[in-house]
Amino acid sequence: MNQAEVSKLVSKLRIPVPPRHRNLRCPKGPEGRIDKLRKTVTGLIKFERIELNYNRADEARQYAERLISEAIRNGDCHKPTMDTADFWLLEKELIHKLFKVLVPRYENTNLSFTRLYQAPKPQVARRLEKVVLELRGNPYPDLLNRNTNNKLLIQNVLLEAAKNDYRQSKVSEIAKNIGKGQNTPKVKSSTADPEIESPKNS
Amino acid sequence: MRRQILCFSTQITQNNCFKTSPLIRFLSTQEAIDRRYHLFTLEKKRQAEKIGRIEKIEVQYKGIPNDCTLVMNKGISTPYDCARHLSEWHVDTSALALLDGTVYWDMHRPLEENCTLELQNFTVPEPQQVNRAFWRTCSYMLGACAAVAFKDTVPVKLHSFPGPDIRSGSFIYDVDLPTLGDWSPSHQELVTLGAEYVKLIQKNEPLERLEVSEELALEMFVDNEHKTKQIPSIARNNGKVTLYKVGKHVDISKGPMISHTGQIGRVSVVSVHKLNGSTNSDLKQLYRFQGVALPTGVIINHFAFSILTERAKKLNTAKSPISKVTEPEESESIAMKA
């Protein structure tokens, strides 16, 4: 009952976070693992797109997300946040980049700050799973070639034609109804006329 | 039948004139397909032997990964071979070749002179011609599918297919089924047709192109009176008829077509409609097979695809080759456009 609400202490990340950290193989033990991750996070903030093994990328991604998230929450006048940034970024000019470039970039987004893609595997080699880790909004060309908005692609041509067809059918339906609306009084009048005429005949 | 084939093969290899001997016989559909396939391979072999001394041409390749010059064999090497020099990705995805920036060339058609080469897949910025080739190939394959799907007791005579019109929503093939007077396919039968189509696709066969003389074409399609009527008008210009082969199926088409059948992805044969001709013509009715397909790698929501299939079920309004107004010549011109 007396527990503090965790969500207010720590911001929720927009990536899947496993319950337990991942051990990375390193002769120096846990410190070596942290060193590795610091190098990777520094590289990610510096180059904005890096290719590496899946384990290390996925682990470093969580730290990078946390770092950016804290920077957005607390700003650059908050001592503990500044210390965290100082610890994780080995090249100190990147601290400026974090607060001056990345915080404005991600302030109003509701997506994760990083993206993880699977990299193509070599056909004959040790099958280590390679991935590409990148910051969103980086200046490089998109990795996925998704020019699906091209109107001339066959699926778009087909869907466009289907849409036009549907609209035409609707319009013709409406036109028919209008015709009916005009027809009905005519029918009434035509039925009315004989009534008028019938007394004359009789 | 085998003896007749041998007789013809000797005639072809000796390059004699092809006198149509009195071949009034009743081949089953499968036998006719086999015979056509045999003649096609022999003619292809003959044309390959006719080349003689091999000359070299320079092909300037433009595109991914970088521009380069390939030295290829004149009259033998195809754009497909050029793609094989580049990468597996080029081989799999290239559907059509663009020579000198203007001429659209089949992937399996030998190059004849120095040229620049661009390989086109389905995602190029201006894919109209690739799409047309795709739609044409789909129609062609629908004919191949219809030819093998029926039992031996049901003779299938392919008539023709009109030029590709993607905006109509479906590709079509008009087939004459003389023994099936009044047939409307059940859902199960349509699914079976679609399954046959998928089987053909999964074989991943290349679409081979061959130009043959009018006499040979007439000989190949001797069992099909509709095609034999169309051939003279098709060959009127230069005396040649362009044939395409996929697997064992050979059919007439103007081309160009895509590289191999594996490039057809999601497909369904959606409906078969009956076309009625005029009462006085010799051809009373045709069946119009309709389908809809997308290239490999195009991922589309199942709901969107259901919209496409629902639309494709309606009778395609492309001109019927046997409608009351049209004369036989016009039906041939429809076949010419295909």
Automatic annotation (TrEMBL), chain A:
GO biological processes: translation
Alphabetical keyword list: Ribonucleoprotein, Ribosomal protein
A cellular-component GO term for this protein: mitochondrial large ribosomal subunit
InterPro entries (alphabetical): Ribosomal_bL17, Ribosomal_bL17_sf
Glycoprotein as UniProt keyword: no
Keyword Ribosomal protein: yes
Pfam families tied to this protein: Ribosomal_L17 (PF01196)
Polar residues bias locations: 180-192
Ranges for region Disordered: 174-202
Domain of life: Eukaryota
A single GO molecular function term of this UniProt record: structural constituent of ribosome
Family: Belongs to the bacterial ribosomal protein bL17 family.
Protein name listed in UniProt: Large ribosomal subunit protein bL17m
Organism, scientific name: Helicoverpa armigera
Lineage of the species this protein comes from: Eukaryota, Metazoa, Ecdysozoa, Arthropoda, Hexapoda
Gene: HaOG206443
Automatic annotation (TrEMBL), chain B:
Record InterPro entries: Beta-grasp_dom_sf, Pro-tRNA_synthetase, Thr/Ala-tRNA-synth_IIc_edit
GO cellular component terms listed in the entry, alphabetical order: mitochondrion
GO MF annotations, alphabetized: nucleotide binding; RNA binding
Domain of life per record: Eukaryota
Stored PANTHER family: LARGE RIBOSOMAL SUBUNIT PROTEIN ML39, MITOCHONDRIAL RIBOSOME PROTEIN L39/PROLYL-TRNA LIGASE FAMILY MEMBER
Protein name stated in the entry: TGS domain-containing protein
Originating organism: Helicoverpa armigera
Gene that produces this protein: HaOG204178
